[in-house]
């Protein structure tokens, strides 16, 4: 599985509407064959930073994502909305998705 984490720092005037702005990109990516997950979170330390966790079944699925029209469209408009170059971690990991955490589970 290809696992990717990206930190997007958004210009302050666009940060409140970021999730809506990336809505089409998000739904189109989630619909891709080979997408495992594509999830946005907002930083608790920086209100203008969003973290994207995404995974693809394999390198081929990841390559198809980067070649998709919705990816190209997002890359075309995003430079006008971000305040700095995104930071990324991109690794291949064993597994097919989220696993249960062995050290913690709900009581009773």
Automatic annotation (TrEMBL):
Q: Extract the SUPFAM superfamilies matched here.
A: Dimeric alpha+beta barrel (SSF54909)
Write one Gene Ontology MF term: catalytic activity
Q: Which Gene3D superfamilies match?
A: 3.30.70.100
Q: Which Pfam families match?
A: ABM
Show the InterPro entries listed in the entry: ABM_dom, AI-2_Isomerase_LsrG, Dimeric_a/b-barrel
Query: Which regions form coiled coils?
Result: none
Give residue ranges for domain ABM. Answer: 2-90
- Quote the protein name from its UniProt record: ABM domain-containing protein
User: Source species, please?
Assistant: Kitasatospora setae (strain ATCC 33774 / DSM 43861 / JCM 3304 / KCC A-0304 / NBRC 14216 / KM-6054) (Streptomyces setae)
């Amino acid at each position: 599985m290809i696992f990717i984490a990206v930190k997007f720092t958004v210009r302050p005037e666009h940060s409140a509407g970021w999730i809506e702005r990336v809505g089409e990109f998000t739904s189109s990516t989630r619909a891709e064959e080979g997408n495992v997950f594509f999830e946005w979170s907002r930083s608790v330390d920086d209100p203008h930073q969003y973290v994207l966790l995404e995974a693809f079944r394999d390198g081929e699925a990841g390559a198809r994502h980067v070649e998709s029209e919705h990816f190209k469209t997002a890359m075309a408009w995003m430079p006008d909305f971000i305040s700095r170059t995104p930071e990324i971690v991109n690794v291949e990991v064993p597994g097919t998705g989220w696993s249960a955490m062995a050290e913690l589970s709900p009581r009773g």
